Amino acid sequence: MHYGLLLLAGASLTFAFAPFGVWPVTILACAIAVRQLHRTEHRGFLTGWVFGLGWFGAGISWVHVSIADYGGLPLIGSVGMMALLCAYLSLYPALAFYLTRRLFPAHLMPLALPFFWTLSEWLRSWVFSGFPWLSLGYSQIDSPLAGWFPILGETGISALLVCLGAALALAHTRAALLRAGLAIAIAYVSGWVASTYSWVTPERSISMAMVQGNIAQSLRWVPEQDGPTMEKYRTLTEPLWDNDVIIWPEAAVPKLEPLALDYLAEIDKKAAQTNSALVTGIVNFNWENDDAWNSMIVLGKKQPDAQQGHYRYFHSNRYAKHHLLPIGEVVPFEDLLRGLAPIFDLPMSSFARGDFQQPNIQANGVSMAPALCFEIAFPRQVGANVHNDTDAIITLSNDAWFGNSHGPAQHMEIARVRALEFGRPVIRSTNNGISGFIDHRGNVTSRLPQFEVGSLSSPVTLTRGITPYGRFGDILIWGLTLAMLVLAWRLRRQ
What we know:
Layout: H1 2-12, H2 25-38, H3 44-59, H4 63-70, H5 75-89, H6 91-103, H7 109-124, H8 149-169, H9 174-195, E1 201-212, H10 226-237, E2 245-247, E3 253-256, H11 261-273, E4 277-286, E5 291-300, E6 318-320, H12 334-337, E7 361-363, E8 366-372, H13 379-384, E9 392-397, H14 407-422, E10 426-430, E11 435-438, E12 444-448, E13 454-464, H15 468-472, H16 475-493
Parallel strand pairs: 1-2, 2-4, 3-4, 8-9, 9-10
Antiparallel strand pairs: 1-13, 4-5, 5-6, 7-8, 10-11, 11-12
Helix pairs in contact: 1-2, 1-3, 2-8, 3-5, 3-6, 4-5, 6-7, 7-8, 7-16, 8-9, 8-14, 8-16
């Protein structure tokens, strides 16, 4: 019964995230988990691990789609890999629960757990390159707590949620329950009040467009499909050249950049002639040392007063992906794993890594902080590339890997949180959806349907200024949770 309840509580968190968005579930699930933790004396680690198993087992079940459909493994193999991933991710809430239960009595958990939770989530964000998906704070993008994102960031919202959940879990009397309810009400009301304040200033509006090619994943790296795919994007873009900036998704140009120079020069010339710029994903390859980069490049006008396009091979107005997706883009223990199964030898699974911090890309006078696919889930990397003169955040992706699952909806939710944290509009262009424009308050202003070929034009309001989270990052929440931990330690000694 104990572990079954923990599994159900963890699995229920799936409904708190997109596409469901039932955000009150998060505090209730945390409260149940902490309640069960309180009832165990020497099984804090196992309690957290089982809770995490339900949380990730249901929440990232979409990973199974990519393994089963494109990994070339039999069903038992794909299920086994999925179970192994969830078991690994569950170690992090297990660590937070273990340290809290081991070092503090139950009544101090609301003070101690937020620090250990923040510590474990920080570890999850970088160990083995990091997988910070489904962090609790993302579930609150449509709740009144969203007003705290520009101040505390998603990391801070997560810490706040476990604090409130712990307070609710340990409310054994009517007075304690009233105090916990009051704390929850204050958090949500103050978040709503904070949301009425604008941390950044709208500066100017530009016209942007994006193209969604909806290329089947099975065809993306078939050489015979290179020409048709490139022609498809060219044709879909023809009605869009009156926009200031046009966006194509990740690896929209399927040929290696050195082999697509004529095509890129043609698009560069067309963009310049129409006073526009085009941003596209492409794979670059260095023949001399066999390095490949998952890249984003700009064609056409770099600045509005330019007389012609500026593209040349390996020009500086580009971005190379830093956070590579394990297995999909880089294979750990490559010499050992390659050849064992098709999933370890996928096309384009051996990329070189770009720098953590790179210059913003410049498209027709618009300065954009880039993030490719998975990278939008790393707020510290995005923040390192958002400066005072950054106009917007741009993220290109290919979510065809995840089929008709809730993975793409969660991905869009993460992008919305980044917009709110840094006070910048986010442009999200994907191969098959969900593509859309997000304003600096995290609202999706327009979007394209999934699994459809299409294009979208929209005015985008650029902003200036910096949010508290953009200025200080996670320093605020580290300081706050550390102060709570010190207080808990002093009370424990007394």
